[in-house]
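Sequence only, no structure available. Ideas?
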Amino acid sequence: MTKNSINIVIAGATGYVGLDLVYLLSKHPNVKIKYLCAQKNIGKKINKFDKRIKKNLPSISKIQSVDWKKIDLLFLSLPNGEAQKVINKLYYKYENLKFIDLSADFRIENEIKYNKTYNKKHKAKKLIKKSIYAISELTKKRLHKFRIIANPGCYPTSIQLPLIPLFKKNLIEIKNITIDSKSGYSGAGKNYKSKFKFKNFYLSTYAYAVRNHRHIEEIDQEFRKISKNIIFTFNPHLIPSFRGILSSIYINKKKGVSTNKIIKTLKLFYKSDYFIKIYKQNSQIGTGNVINTNNCDISVCQTRIKDKIVIFSAIDNLVKGAAGQAIQNMNNLFNFNVSLGLK
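Reply:
I predicted one. Tokens follow.
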């Protein structure tokens, strides 16, 4: 589908991810923001919540006030369980309307596993098969077949981008993979203080969700599409930083595979992808270079053990891990230049 300009709605505009969506999309040359929706602060201007937003945009309104006949795309940055209700009401009534959901509502393709992971029944289970789980670089050629785009989680994005190509090329062992991820606290949303009542929160690093982090099912699902025998452990940590994720992935190479071959494979796989940067061997990287960008920086390092490497993957959890990837998916969906609104 190709259009010179599209009309969009952003639901959940005042959350951390919602504000990044508004800020980035307000500078996109092919986008007209027609409505900014939220449950509270009706009538207020969006730049009251984010001084970066300079453009004069519509005041905040309720989603019930939207004239859907004039809208091409709805971004949903809502709590888990809410987007499915909205999409269920609109999907069949407005056949030209497309959806990019930044919650987990359409990430899990198995309804029973969704119910178990999120402890709630899916309200639009018939639409799950009409959606696509979309890490931009991995699904860009298939997006046009779908109207519901499930934007991936932030941790899974940082993990799958370096690992999926190596699984596909059979270069690494698929068992005993250890994934250690550290994230800024914005990933927990504006209510993070009620979710994490840690002592000295802003001065400390915390491990949490040791066995049952919700993103594990999402990662498992995508890995199973390559092999049902992939075994990994995953543990997230909160760090005293607002933005950014650094995932450290410890894996064993297949016999005879050099670290240099792994780097060359990643470079070749992502050679035409604007936002992926593969560093030279043993490069030290962190979140500093990716903050406020849609980039994913990847470094492959040799450990003291001959066959073991560690891959570092850095993204901004609010951009490449959420709003930026959603816009990248939009650019792919409507055949816009992939970097528009994201440079």
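The two ends are 23 Å apart (CA to CA).
Hope that gets you unstuck.
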